[in-house]
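Design job #97: recover the sequence.
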């Protein structure tokens, strides 16, 4: 008669069956937990219909907001001021400009608005991927015409419930120095108007100030306003730029 091995006899013993099952379940637990998956640190998970691969950040994950500016662009948009920054000035062709408190020039955040050339009248978390593809097509055309140098292509991003396309450009400031800067542009279209939040920094400072631009984008409130409804912006809390300084702060590359 063939003898069974000690291991077979041990496994067949009902007194040890419960231990075998327990060990098997313990071994499988990490794999089962991994299948559930958690959101990456620093990113808001799921929800909002953002779609696979769309990064999302809640306002609570971004720098604090100090104040909300009165409605601009005919009452269509309200912009927040992030912690450590101050409303600096308005000017022709832009809604507003932000600087670090007590400073002018780079780094700065410029917000602009224009009638939308996009086929998407209002960008949401549901269509931001398609919108980003349209923005990238526009960037590709600018690159082909040597009007822009793209460092990072357009990618969809949801910030505090607002949907944006994000891309990064290289640009040069006019003037004697011809300094090279980086521009992180957040672009969206709401009710037929296209808005850009343009963070302009020295080449090594994008990571340092990126989230301040994100905080503005997350805290922005959009309204279907009518011309003439916007309130006047408050007086700048930092000295207004001189004409020469304002000129030197504008890059030659376009969005």
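Job complete. Output follows.
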């Amino acid at each position: 008669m063939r003898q069974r091995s000690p291991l077979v006899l041990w496994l067949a013993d009902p007194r040890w069956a419960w231990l075998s099952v327990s060990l098997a379940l313990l071994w499988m637990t990490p794999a089962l937990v991994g299948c559930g998956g958690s959101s990456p640190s620093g990113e808001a998970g799921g929800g909002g219909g953002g779609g696979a691969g769309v990064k999302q950040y809640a306002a609570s994950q971004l720098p604090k907001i100090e104040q909300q500016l009165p409605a601009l662009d005919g009452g269509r948009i309200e912009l927040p001021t992030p912690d450590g920054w101050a409303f600096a000035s308005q000017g022709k062709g832009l809604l507003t400009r932000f600087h670090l408190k007590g400073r002018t020039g780079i780094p700065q955040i410029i917000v602009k608005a224009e009638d939308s050339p996009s086929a998407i009248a209002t960008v949401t978390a549901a269509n931001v991927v398609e919108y980003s593809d349209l923005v990238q097509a526009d960037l590709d055309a600018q690159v082909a015409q040597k009007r822009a140098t793209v460092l990072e292509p357009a990618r969809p991003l949801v910030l505090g419930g607002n949907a944006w396309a994000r891309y990064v450009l290289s640009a040069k400031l006019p003037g004697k120095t011809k300094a090279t800067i980086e521009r992180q542009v957040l672009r969206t279209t709401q009710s037929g108007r296209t808005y850009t939040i343009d963070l302009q920094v020295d080449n090594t400072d994008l990571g340092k100030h990126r989230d301040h631009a994100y905080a503005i984008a997350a805290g922005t409130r959009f309204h279907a306003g009518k011309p003439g409804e916007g309130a006047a912006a408050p007086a700048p809390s930092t000295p207004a730029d001189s004409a020469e300084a304002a000129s030197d702060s504008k890059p030659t590359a376009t969005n």
